[in-house]
Amino acid sequence: MTDLVQIIVSTATVGSALALVALGYSLVFSATGIVNFAQGPLLVVGGYGAYALTRAGLPIGVALVVAVLGTAAAGVAVEVVALRPLRRFDAATDVGWVLTTFAAGLVAVDLVRIGVDASPHALPPLVGSVFGRQVWQVAGVAVTPTDVVIVAATLALVVAVDVTLRATPFGRALRAVAQDREAATLVGVDARVVVTGAFALAGALAAVAAVLLAPKVFVRLENGLVLGLQAFVAAVLGGLGSARGALAGGYVVAAVSAVARTVSPSGSRYEFVAVFALFLVTLAFRPTGLLGGRVMEKV
Amino acid sequence: MRPPPRPGSGCAVSRRRFLQWAGQAGLAAAAAAGAPALLGSCAYGDDGPPGRAGSGSGGPGGSSDTIRVGVVAPFSGVGAFLGDIVDRSLDAAVQQVNSTGGVGGRKVELVQRDTGIDPSAGPRVYADLVSKGVAGILWCGAVGFSQALPLVKRDQMPVVAVFNDPFSSGHLYPEGDRAGRSVFQILLPDRYAKSVLAAYAASDRGYRTAAYMYDALLDPGATARARFEESFSRAGVEITGVETFSLVDSDYGPQLQRLREGRPQVLYVDGLNTNTAGVVSQLHDLGAAYVDTPTAKALADGGWHPQVFGSPPGSGDRSWVELAGDKARVGTVTAWHLGGLVYLPSFAIGGWMRKFLGREPTGGEESAPDGLAALLAGVRKAGSTERAKVVRGMEEAGPLTFASLEFGFTRDRHLARTPDEVAIVTMERGASGPAPTVPPYRLGLEWSPGQAFAGTPAGPTQLVRPTLEANRRAHPALLDQILAEGYGTQCTKRDGALTPDCKVH
């Protein structure tokens, strides 16, 4: 029983964390058809930004708001320096964006290292206790308010992004630009604004993720690489461009890891093998991911 | 304070395989993600980009008025904060050396090269440093070290392993031949650290059971695990569980659930500071936080409350405490080298850092300067920068005292440390005062106004009694000073001797 509860709790918290980061990948992909490899580093920018603000004495709530705005601006900067110089390109065949977004991410992390520092840091939790309780024991498994907040916030953000993509003018414009930028422009969509908006939102999401996850994973430079790449796997597994796919991918990756570590003391040795094996198998049979839509192109 | 040291004297180590671990951490993450090719190092130097053949002015060792010393460390990437330690400590040390006449009138010039997190950068930066005509190399991290060793051995290049541990791997001369005779080690070996911690657990604390958690990505060959099992088994401690994690883990729940069944009295966490902080935090959440005294333990819920033992990289400084916050427990211990107790005012490195950089050492700053001192002592002894002569000079230079404690190498010993120099270090809280024990104890002098830890909320401090006799054998004058002036955590003195009954951790 304890093992099962442990797997559920681990999957819910770690999976939500991955989903939150994966959401940023999906958002940018929805607008541009590219994967923003600076998404992980934006997590670093948001986290260290919030840390610098709390160190300066700001409450964590205020730091979160300022970090969200700042990281949104950093997201825009990534778009300006990594994507715009490429001008119009076919994301499928002109893959210069892989290098430019990756390079932008490296620069962002080094700027953080130079501007703040390179040490890992803790951030105070947004919610330290609920009704005076700092932890609940569920069948011998510890559940903290931070765990609950991560899961709840992730679900809320996934729903919000999903609704935004499906049912708002911005979401429709985003999808239109992704499908055919020229056609979207002809019908009055300002493609540049839409793409910039997607990068800004992805940046904002990264900052939210960094602050929410800090009590679990801390604020550290490695998060850009480690969480960023795990979340990338989750996003692709679930279906790039789909908010619900990001959620599903996050939970699948986390579940595989949790099961591996629960069934064996050496599980950590094999969790990546298991995750990537599943990743490859999924892509072999469903190239668009678990919840990705079927791609139909008019020829 | 000591008199102004001469270049090429002394050292101490302590802070750990930090560079090694952090560099490997980045490597492992990249490897796990299948993206190593995208993560090339950003090698740089003070006289040109990597890979470019340097002028190598003046031939081997530098020009007629300079001695060039290569410094390899992760100055970028996830290990960059550790490269910063190397950078600033050597900055202070070189200023000290050059302001006191250099080496035989020649100024010391550092040539830094960055491995980032890319092990393939090792041979490249090595070749680049050779082309610059360095007299020797301080290799401050494991990244690229083993890849460069064949070249080092071929060239007989004098290399000081500052934050690498070839000794514990059996590769340090004369025990192993892989590194060749020109490699020397400053770092406290993990082998010694685990051995002393095992003896402390069994003999001092009377523990009979222990468990081990380690990073399977950083230790894929489980060599550190083997050292744990060997050390604790030899001490008569039963190992009730061994668990793995990876640096990408933030959730240790499954592992702790399994370990709880065996109720080990010791939980040894072999990882980075984030791992120690994460495990300690989740032990707290599970209601399994360490309880300090036998009395308190008996009054507690009767549950599992293991004492956390950490590796020097993960528990040797205050950073893990800052990460874990209130969940960090006083009494968490690790092993350290006496010379790494940078709060002791008799160690020169603190004064140099204040004088030249205007800042306090935070830990580990003595290691690279002592490596530099060893190299320069070899040059001085050799009277030239000819490699074979420098190696012999390092072996024959005799005892050196430079940044902290005396150390030295011989023909038969290329390791700067001895088992008698290992100290137990415990986490103490300055802000909230000593942990409540019966009878009570006082915090060491280092926490007093005007001392290094004044106003510091928490930090690692020496647990004097458990290794007192061994430490006294190695450095009697230092231990007399510590005892007389009251540094570290000292138990009740009875008839002039420390007794174990005032503070048991």
What does the model show?
The complex is a heterodimer of chains A (299) and B (505). Chain A is mainly alpha-helical. Helix content of chain A is 72%, strand content 2%. Chain A is built from eleven helices and two strands. Chain A starts with a helix and ends in a 14-residue tail after the last helix. Chain B has 505 residues and is α/β, with parallel strands linked by helices. Chain B has a domain at 18-30 and 40-188 and 343-418: Rossmann fold. In chain B, the strands form four sheets. Chain B has a five-stranded parallel β-sheet, sandwiched between helices. Chain B has a four-stranded parallel β-sheet with strand order 7-6-8-9, with helices on both faces. In chain B, β13 and β14 form a beta hairpin. Chain B is globular. The two termini of chain B are 31 Å apart. Chains A and B meet through α1, α4, α8, α9 and α10 of A and α1, α2, β7, α7 and α8 of B.
Label the CATH architecture of the domain at 18-30 and 40-188 and 343-418 in chain B.
3-Layer(aba) Sandwich
Care to count the β-strands of chain A?
2
Show unreliable segments of chain B.
1-58
**What kind of sheet is the major sheet of chain A?**
2 strands, antiparallel
Task: Enumerate how many helices of chain A there are, as a single number.
Answer: 11
| Helix proportion range of chain B | 25-40%
Please give the order of strands in the largest beta sheet of chain A. 1-2
Largest interface: A-B, 48 and 50 residues
Task: Please state how the strands of the largest beta sheet of chain B are arranged side by side.
Answer: 2-1-3-4-5
The quaternary state of the protein chains shown equals heterodimer
Apparent shape of chain B: globular
Order of helices and strands of chain B: HEHEHEHEEHEHEHEHHEHHEHHHEEHHEE
Q: Indicate the proportion of strand residues of chain A.
A: under 5%
Structural class of chain A: mainly alpha
Count of beta strands of chain B: 14
Rg calculated over all Cα atoms of chain B: 22 Å
Task: Give the strand content of chain B.
Answer: 5-15%
Work out the helicity level of chain A: over 70%
